Amino acid sequence: MITIIYRLIVVMVIALVGWNLFTEKKLTNQMNCAMVLIPLVLRALMIK
Amino acid sequence: MTKKNYISAALCLAVSIAIMISTSMNFLAAREVPMPEWGPSVTEVKMLSDWFDGLAGTNGDTPVYVLKGEKEGGAALVLGGTHANEPSGYMSAITFIETAVVEAGTIYVIPYTNHSAMTHNDPGEGNIQYFTINTQSGPRTFRFGSRATNPIDQWPDPDVYVHYPSNQQLSGSETRNINRGYPGRADGNLTERMAYGVAELIRAENVGITFDLHEASPEYPVINATVAHQDAMNIASEGCIELLLGGIDMSLEQSPTNFHGLTHRELGDYTDTMAILMETANASQGRLRGASSVEQVLGGLDRFYVINEDLGMLYVPFDESGHPIEERCGRHLQGVYEYISAYNNANPDDAILYSGVPGYAELFLMADPATLGGPHLGSYLK
Fold it and tell me: Which domain, by its residues, includes B350?
């Protein structure tokens, strides 16, 4: 159960970071968002 | 938000997705653990879940190779890969499976006792993921894994790990260390269930003697050593003398009664088996080592350990020739042979007889030094 809740939280953070990626105006912030997405997506899919 | 921002965001996302795909392929490939080839005495390959169905369908389920002799006899169990970052443990088990000719009794070999631990690496260690050895059939690639169960399979770690049934307290990450999880429990976490499965196999098959093959860093005191449960000390003493007479520097100590969760303590306490654990010197494991490399894992070479030997920091001799995989597997395989011989002397009606497995002399002493570090071991593998 705790793993399901954890994954739901991760998916929510992915959605927020993804939103930020497309609303940020500075390229450096967009790059940061893109990098942050990598471990989050791998964890949400339980790959790593 | 301008169109230009959308384009740059899309480009960043595309690069991010490309990295995700690339790394995912790498991590997913690690879940394919290469299995041993069938040796001359392998009669069947079962799964640990055949003895404890609580492991079925999990990444903790692991193959058990059954090597059966034509004559009746006792039963032995060899555990490799308890810690998947200690390659001489599982390479010895694989060599045993592929070479042993069992004449009497049954020998069960589990090459990857913690199968889940083989499917990932320890973050921050910078370990290699694979190593390749040239064998009789050509190059074969083996995994280099982690000390502990993959957190994908067992999560989260508690702050404090409380061992069942002793209530001993250890650091939280030890909850994924199978050699702190024995005797295990049927309704425990995945690591405890793996340990329980091993104990169930021992109980169901009346395994008389069990070996757990390990490695340790050169700065760890219990190295080039055998640790035995008190019930196995007579056999271990006799076998250890034979090893010493054969030129193998082996120390022997009795399993501490107040250190719980380990094979040599709990399998001896909770089953009728003679529990024995062996340690060899692994240059790729310690804190004083240099950067990880295949040469470090297979050749046992590390220039920083040579320096630390001069400083008196180590518990094994360490020079430029290192401790190649042939020496380490030779120690394990010779140890298994001598301890089983001692077991046979004490239990002549339950003798376990086998031949064909290379020992310390064949693997190390008589080998061409130029072939050490993988090629010579590979010449025995199918």
Answer: 34-378
